[in-house]
Amino acid sequence: MGVLALRGHRRTALRMLYAVCIIYLTSEAIGLVLARQRPFAQVSDVQELLSHHPARSFPSRHVASAVAMALLARDSDRRVARAMASVAALLGVSRIAAGLHYPSDVVAGAALGFTISRYVRKA
Question: Domains in the chain, please, with CATH?
Answer without folding.
Answer: 2-122 (1.20.144.10)
